Amino acid sequence: KSINMEVHHHSHHPKKWKEYITEFLMLFLAVSLGFMAENVREHQIVAHQTESVIAQLYQELQKDTASLHKIDVVHDKQDTATIVLENYILNTDLEANKVNFFYLHNYLCTREGIFETNCIALDQLKFAGILKNVKDSKLRDCIEKYDLMLLQINARTSREVDFMNRYMDDIRIAPFDYYFRTARDTSDSFVNVKGSIKSSASINYHNKTWDFVLNKTFLPDNLALKAFDKSIYLNRMLQLNGIRMSTDIIHKNGIYKAGIELLQNIERVYPDINEVH
């Protein structure tokens, strides 16, 4: 007895070339869209990072320009104070004008008016490679210009600091005894010295009154003027004033204008910059 077994074979029809092309195009399109989406996302991340650093730079620039404007006022007063001090030493009875001389001396011996930048964001732009993402050429040029001028004025500032470190301690104690000091705005540390703490002064000069703010200064009732070499003292004061004024003329006025120009260009490229956090 024979048993006939029917074997069924499933036939696979070969794909048509159009189906291969369709699958290839769908795969290619999916991969391409994925790359495009990733590129768009990376571009958005870079743009957001760049705008965030520019916003930080914008805020720091506002502090820089405000500081430069204040320093300009301070240097003008220091220049006037030096002129008056020179007149007192050369043309007046210094003993009769010792109180005003004391005020001017203390005012000019401070380190007020030394510029220190607030722009940390500039380093991020340079060293993190973010500056290349700033596509606006005018804005990029303004950033590079301000950065260069910062390097120049920092060199001038170092010159002033070095001069004061070298000479100011000797100058400070030359005309007056400084055995009394203010301590936390009190007179607890004064021993057998009576006087008052002054925070402002008015000086008459050429029939005009000049008012200026002092760092808190203790004025003893019995202020004693010591014998000192007036020529050396005045020479040092004039040198210090010359350094300050040359910094103003050569660099400070220029960097202030560069800072304002940079602020204006940031506002032009990023009109909503004040809303960036």
Which stretches of 5+ consecutive residues score pLDDT under 50? none
Write out the strand line-up for the largest beta sheet, numbering strands in chain order.
1-2
Report the C-alpha radius of gyration, rounded.
Answer: 35 Å
Total DSSP helices = 5
Query: How does the helix and strand content classify structurally?
Result: mainly alpha
- Which strand-content bin applies to the residues? 5-15%
Percent of residues in helices = 55-70%
String of helices and strands: HHHHEEH
Largest sheet: 2 strands, antiparallel
How many E-type strands? 2
The first-to-last residue Cα distance is 93 Å
Q: Taking all residues together, what is the mean pLDDT? A: 82
Q: What sort of overall outline do the alpha carbons produce when their principal axes are compared?
A: rod-shaped
